[in-house]
Amino acid sequence: MLFSKREAEIVTPEDALPGRDRPAFAMPAQHAVLGTPLQPPFPEGVETAVFALGCFWGAERIFWETPGVYTTAVGYAGGHTPNPTYEETCSGRTGHAEAVLVAFDPKQVPYASLVKIFFEAHDPTQGMRQGNDRGTEYRSAIYFAGEEQRQAAESARDMYSETLQKASFSPITTEIAEAGPFYYAEDYHQQYLHRVPNGYCGIRGTGVTCPLPVALPISKH
Rounded to 5 degrees, what angle do the CA atoms 214, 216, 219 make? Predict the structure, then answer.
């Protein structure tokens, strides 16, 4: 399938679907694998990260299998439409990417390690697609919470971009932006590959190791 203009460009806020003021569906209370709550409040000391790396089914499994991760959930992030549905997001008219919310204990797994996992788990050079999955909802993105996460994400991107280009890959296209609202996806998408172990997973890494990012000290001034 060739890219259409809709698939290659994120919809503008003016042209995005209006959405709704509350979710259109109910959510399960607990993670089907970890047994932890899917939604806040999370225990003290648990932090959150949001990553988009193609189809969120396979992306979520990578993170729930990571030691130190408290819970995960799939949803929609980085767009304009409030409380979208899966069908609306797949239309390309919400601006959202399929994303994974990762709640983690930074004492067990630092954010920088999650960023490394993110980059190695998919090909961040493909623009508005991931493998055979094409469209703006499949773009590579990191939505950061706070300055420390931003610095770690940008540090990893810059170092990994150099490494990938030496291996003859194109430049990284990963979007790095401040986290906005995370809208949970429908219940049948949550932990999908746990319930359907042989289900579809379209994400593939490059086979190139990502250097571990180093966050710079945060200025107090």
Answer: 165
Do strands 175-178 and 140-144 pair parallel, antiparallel, or not at all (unpaired)? parallel
Q: What is residue 118's DSSP assignment?
A: H
Let me know: does 129 contact 138? Beta carbons within 8 Å.
yes
Read off the pLDDT of residues 147-191 as tens digits, 9 standing for 90 and up: 999 999 999 999 999 999 999 999 999 999 999 999 999 999 999
How many CA atoms are closer than 13 Å to the CA of 58, on its beta-carbon side? 18
Render the burial of 21-53: b for 16+ CB within 10 Å, e for the rest: eeeeeeeeeebebbebbbeeebeeebbbbbbbb
14: Cα separation from own chain's centroid: 24
Widest CA span in the chain: 52
What are the tens digits of pLDDT across the range 99-142? 999 999 999 999 999 999 999 999 999 999 999 999 999 999 99
Ordered structural domains, the chain, with CATH: 45-195 (3.30.1060.10)
Cα separations in angstroms, 123 against 35, 41, 118:
30, 33, 10
Residue 201 designated active-site: no
The rounded mean pLDDT for the chain is 93
Rounded mean pLDDT, 78-93: 98
Kindly state the DSSP code that residue 172 receives in the 8-state scheme.
P
Contacts of 171 (CB under 8 A, 6+ apart): 125, 161, 164, 165
